[in-house]
Model the fold of this input.
Amino acid sequence: MDKFVIEGGAPLVGEIETSGAKNAALPALAACLLTEDTVTLHRIPRVKDITTMTSLLRSIGAAVDADGGTVRVEARHVEKPEAPYELVKTMRASSLVLGPLAARFGRARVSIPGGCAIGARPINLHINGLEQLGAQVTQTHGYIEAVAPPEGLRGSVVTFDRITVTGTEDLMMAAVRAKGETILENAAREPEVQDLADLLIKMGAKVEGGGTSTIRIEGVPSLHGAEHAIIPDRIEAGTFLIAGAITGGNLLVTACEPEHLNALVAKLRQCGVTVEQEGPGALRVRRTGTLRAVDMITEEHPGFPTDLQAQFLALMTQADGISIITETIFENRFMHASELMRMGANIRIEGRQAIVAGPRELSGAQVMSSDLRASASLVVAALVARGETVIDRVYHIDRGYEAIEAKLVKAGARIRRV
Done:
């Protein structure tokens, strides 16, 4: 099992390029099931979750050709509209195939995802939406089976009880081939939802309002092939901005979308960090003075993203004062705090809040990753810690960061995989 060995104390200087967004690439790959034509996707990140999704597509019967960051999918001969437990258990986003399979083939059988280290992510919001589109949904033997009526799914008004990104994406893909108009209310506004809407439109779908809280979809009988480039990964870019700030570096993060990072940039500036846009797709982060402690609350987009909470918490261990980090999205997303405390951080957890007192000198220690973003927070902390940090179970970080150690080394970090 791979580990990272990190010698802290080196400021990040230079340039790091952002990869394509994992959380946009996954629904885009699922959308390929909506047509028998070839869909070509560019800027697909080479991470473990993408490998899992392409394996799932192949198991269903799609032809998948990957060439670097370009993936071509032809789902002409789908043999089995099913997502087996062996694949779904490793990646909850596998449930994104539920909507497109039910819409195109009239039937989908998807294993119910198991528990998640950062809290429950119930699939009931997907199920309720499909039922409102006319599908009959049953749960037996650990599987969800959705069967469309003989005439196919039909448009409806679907109001989500709470905002759900994957639920919004799943229902969008189901609705584009349903008969009539579908209106999704209280929809997720994340950039990844907008990116999926852009791809679906290129494939011939009629979608309005992608990236807003109300999405209108007029169903069409069929979709065709398309070519699409995935948006930059705002969480990866944000992680590198935080890493540059915590190390007191001078780092240029390129190939990103600054508009997607407004909430993080605002918080960094409140902390006393200089963040400036250089060109249409680059942000420079610099810090020369003391970090100031600030409070932060995670929210759905355009608020502060929960996927950057762990990394920001690591930054606050180096800030002067008391900061209160409030997690509103997931109920169990502070497991990285105990590992940061092993490195010397002063953190107290009270329900959904982490109270961080700083600055505290962190010292290298042997720590263990519990999930994808927790892994990133430990890397961020290790970059500024005194001495050597060994991070175990880095397969978590490989799920969502493409060659993170190589990118950090390029900017001067002392990190190696063993």
Q: What stands out?
A: The longest helix spans residues 48-60. The chain has two domains: 4-19+232-417, 22-229. The chain has a mean pLDDT of 94. The first strand starts at residue 4 and ends at 7.
